[in-house]
Amino acid sequence: MQLFFSYFKDLVGREVTVELKNDLALRGTLHSVDQYLNIKLENTRVVDQDKYPHMLSVRNCFIRGSVVRYVQLPPDGVDVELLHDATRREARGG
Question: What coarse category fits the chief subcellular location reported for this protein (predicted)?
């Protein structure tokens, strides 16, 4: 879990899309993330506005980590080598 937390901290200020377990998808600027992977988004937009019209006025939101299904990262925000190295270190227990 710590691996993901440190990775998401590096994405603060970048635009991400968060899909929730109830199928709601929100796109916004990652403002903060904590060790439980709770996420705060700013400048939030609903991806499927026709399905969730009641969410159109939401501009900032806090998302509990346990309700997140996926987080879509910006294509240039993925440092594959960094993730590989961190995964290897975690697998070795260090």
Answer: nucleus
